[in-house]
C-alpha cells in the first residue's frame, strides 16, 4: 500500500530518523520517495549523506505533492510548523503527527479545513523494531489511511488503534514513557545482583533478559501476570521472600501512581 507513496518527514530527529531508517530497511518505501526536513542545515546534510534522501530546511517546499506527511518535531514547535504548512497542505494529504500532547482536533483546527490527521504515540524501542505505537484517527480519515499508518509503525513494532482521544494521554504516560520506568527497574535489580556479589555486566544481562522473557511470556501466552508469577513462586521458596520485599516497598502502588501522575502531566501539557 505504501510502495508508491511519497512520504515527507518534518523533523528528522530521534523518532523521525527511527521511522525513516525502518521504512528504508524494511523496503516499505523507495528511498527516492522519502524526504526529510530539519531545523539546521548541517543536520539536513548529515541525513542526506547517511540515507541518500532529499532533505529540506523549508517545510512548505518539502510537502508539496507528497502523499503522507509525518510530523516529528517537539510539541512546542507544532503551532509554528503547522502555520507554515497551512497554506500548501491539501485535503488529499495524510498528516501523521507523533508530537506528544497535541490533539488531532488542535491540528485540524489550526489547518482550518477537512485535513486528514492521525495522531501516533510511538516509543523509543522502535529503534530496534520493538516499539509500541498507538494510533488515534482524526475526524476525516478512513480505514485506508489508518492502514497506511499501521504499515509505517508496524515496521518498528506493535501497533494498536484507539478512537477515544482522551486516552492518548494515558498511552503517553504508559507506553510512551514506559521504557524510562523499565530502565529504572533494570538498574535497580542489577544493583541488587551487584550488592550480592555478581559482576555488573552479568547482573545487568540477567536482569534485562529476565524482563524481556517475562514480557514475551505475557504477550505470547496472553496469560494474566499473576498466574505467570505463581508458576515461579514455590512454597517456602526463594521468590516469595523477594516478592514480600517488593510489596513492603510499595512497588505496585508506586508504579500505578507513576502512570497516574504522568497522565496528569500529559493532560496538563495538552491544555
Ligand atoms: N523520544 C521519544 O521517546 C518519543 C516518543 C513518542 C513521541 N515522541 C514525540 O516525537 C517528537 C520528536 O521527538 P524527538 O525525541 O525525536 O525530538 P528530537 O530528537 O529533538 O527531534 C526533533 C527534530 O525536529 C527538527 N526540527 C525542529 N524544528 C523544525 C522545523 N521548524 N522544521 C523541521 N524540522 C524541525 C530538529 O532539527 P535539528 O536537529 O536540525 O534541530 C530535530 O531533528 C516530539 O513531539 C515527541 O513528543 C517522542
Main attributes of the structure:
271 residues; alpha/beta; Rossmann fold; ProC C-terminal domain-like fold; 2 domains; 8-stranded mixed sheet; 12 helices; 53% helix; 14% strand; elongated; binds NADP nicotinamide-adenine-dinucleotide phosphate
Overview of this structure, please?
- The protein is elongated.
- The protein has helices spanning 14-25, 41-51, 59-63, 78-85, 104-111, 143-154, 168-176, 178-195, 200-221, 225-232, 239-248, 251-270; strands at 7-10, 34-37, 54-56, 68-71, 94-97, 116-121, 131-137, 157-161.
- It folds into two domains: 7-168, Rossmann fold (3-Layer(aba) Sandwich), CATH 3.40.50.720; 178-270, ProC C-terminal domain-like (ProC C-terminal domain-like fold, Orthogonal Bundle), CATH 1.10.3730.
- It has an eight-stranded mixed sheet, with helices on both faces.
- α7 (168-176) crosses α12 and α8 (178-195) packs across α9.
- The two termini are 36 Å apart.
- It is α/β, with parallel strands linked by helices.
- It contains twelve helices and eight strands.
- The structure holds NADP nicotinamide-adenine-dinucleotide phosphate.
- NADP nicotinamide-adenine-dinucleotide phosphate binds next to α1.
Q: What is the assigned CATH homologous superfamily of the largest domain? A: NAD(P)-binding Rossmann-like Domain
Helix content: 40-55%
Number of helices: 12
Number of domains: 2
Q: What is the tally of beta strands?
A: 8
Summarize this, please?
With 271 residues, this protein is of the alpha/beta class. It has helices at 14-25, 41-51, 59-63, 78-85, 104-111, 143-154, 168-176, 178-195, 200-221, 225-232, 239-248, 251-270, and strands at residues 7-10, 34-37, 54-56, 68-71, 94-97, 116-121, 131-137, 157-161. An eight-stranded mixed β-sheet has the order 3-2-1-4-5-6-7-8, sandwiched between helices.
